[in-house]
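To: structure subgroup
Subject: Chain for Friday's discussion

All,

I'm putting the inputs and outputs inline so they're searchable in the archive.
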Amino acid sequence: MTAQPVDRFAECIAPANWQAVDVISDLHLQAGEPETFEAWAAYLRRPAHERADALFILGDLFEVWVGDDVLSTHTSPSADHAFWRACAEALQAYSAHAPVYFMRGNRDFLLGPAGLDACGMQGLSDPTVLVFLDQRWLLSHGDALCLADTDYMRFRAEVREPAWQHRFSGTTPGPTRSDRARAARPERGAQAQHRQRPQPLGRRGHPGRQGLAAARRGPHADPSPHAPARDPRPG
């Protein structure tokens, strides 16, 4: 008997009426860069006829996320907490009109079920296969592929352990936890982080293979793991 192949990736199956999706990542939103936040918020506020059928966020939306309790009204106020709440409100408003899917990155891996709910987002496993336009598109943040960076891979494995996350969440929310998060995070080799403006993979009025051709190579096909692959053809 021939063994049947097993697809080990989670799947997200697009409804038949979807014509376009937007895929963004690595915006690294933070209170200290209000211009980036304003550009992103303006993108979310676009008129309905300019929006895709769904928004996929493939990690590192935030420069750092120190726990879902930062959205609690009982948390001591700070500029960071006010900023995170403003981000959650913007996402919640957008999700009232189109589904928002979120995959954790190496900066915001502590965004959990409560944070997803507050932002109106649905969580995605890394990797996930998007079944859309009769094709299968592999979605991944990409940091799990940095196998040559052994220091980072050890760090990645450690901070995804429930015991580590439990100890970290015991730190009082506020500057102390934010500072710990920034100090604990190693840079991935010498690669620079590219902060990307939201870019659609498929566009209304131009659906189909052109807008999505780059996705066949994966969202991080460029040698730099944070530079999105782009279709060289116009349109």
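Points worth raising on Friday:
Residues 79-95 form the longest helix (17 residues).
Helices lie at 34-44, 79-95, 113-119, 150-159, 162-169, 175-184, 209-212.

D.
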